Structures are given as C-alpha cells and as structure tokens.
Amino acid sequence: MTFLRSLLALLPTPFSWIFQAIGTLLVVYSFYIEPFILSITHRYYKSEKFHVGTRLRILHIGDLHVEREVDLIGIINKLNPDIILFSGDILNLSYLEDMQAWEGARKLLGELKTTLGVFI
Q: Mean per-residue pLDDT for 15-43?
C-alpha cells in the first residue's frame, strides 16, 4: 500500500495532494470506523425438509476481529441462535502473536450460547 501511495506522489502537486488525502481518509475509515460498525440482517427461508412450524435460527458471523468488538457476546446471546457459523477472521493478522487477543477469542467463543453448536 505504501508503494502504491508513493507512486501517487509523482503526480503534479494538486492531484498528488488530493489522492493522498483520499488515501488517508480511506485508511482512517477502514481502521477506526468500519470495524466498529455492527449490522444485523434478518433473512427468512422456507424448506420442505423441515416440519411445518419448525424454525432454525442460524447466526452467521464474518470477519469477527475479536480484539475490536465490544459487547458482542450480549448481542449474540440476545439473538438466541440455534447455530453459529463463523466465516472470515477471528483475529487480525497483526494480533496472531498476541496472547491476550487469543485469550479474548477463546473467552468469546466459550461464552456463546447455542442449542446446536458453534462452527468455525
């Protein structure tokens, strides 16, 4: 990313400043704003494989990044899922050597309540 941004410095001055400012804003957004945005989307599907009236509540979580989430356990447990499916990262790559981050991940996964299990 640094290499690509340094190439923009070769542009004429007003354009270089504009692109550098846009790049800086994107970095600020991606590191300090977007990771804290939590969205919950509800989808309803029907299947002939289930008996009439049977409900299965599946919670899918992508790119968890445990080291940045705040009251996630409370939010998940209020949703009362039957199954939790994780796809994506549980920790950022920069935290893979951080034992405190690993402990936070273990704690979070251990406190999740489901009737049918948590799948990573």
A: 83
